[in-house]
Amino acid sequence: MSNIKIAPSIVSADLGRLAEEVRECEAAGASYIHIDVMDGRFVPAITIGWPVVEAIRRATDLTLDIHLMVVEPEKQIGRFIDAGGDIINVHVEAATHPHRIVQEVHGRDLRAGVCLNPGTPVTALDSLLPEIDQVMVMSVNPGASGQKFIESAIGKVEHFRREIDANGYAAEIEVDGGVTAGNAPRCAAAGADVLVAASAIFNERASITENIRGLQDSIAALKT
Ligand code: DX5
Ligand code: ZN
After folding, report:
1. What is the pLDDT of residue 223?
2. Ligand 1 pocket, 67 CB below 6 A?
């Protein structure tokens, strides 16, 4: 099995059976549960708030990867930390003081991630990359699941892989949006550590377990 982590995004789960769906992800070998928080301002949709994060926390011991697609994330991070988040990811486009947020998250002994929209150049993270635990390369424009993978994300992953390896930084690289068994091997080859997937896991016709295994197998096949 490859060591790429799979992070099912529960935005496409059956929310009426959320605890069961999360437990199935865990049993199938998912590493994180990815939680897409949308505020109706940074992106048009409104999805999940901290009470749902608390409920997921009760359902699983997996790492909760909180993706804050919200304006003024500095006002929200405390609630999501209290609710049980493990990795707190904020958009560099939304945060006026992303470095301060990273310091705050580290002050609570949690992992800090920074997300980059498809239209944002990699240089936007030059100063933050040495400090953070995760860089999230968005391979769709944030706001909805089920969109097509944007290929320029691959080049960004390759860039961050080179920078991280050359400098010995700790950050892991996560790819979010449009990930399928078809493009997962290319994300892995480019140097991704974590792949987020919503529709490929919850909306495909096979079971959650088969879909997670399908992603893992497609990556493993590339590596052998
Ligand atoms: C996009 C979210 C993603 C998305 C993934 O705004 O951050 O996590 O829901 O969905 P798929 O895998 O369907 O592109
Ligand atoms: Zn996400």
Report:
1. 67
2. yes
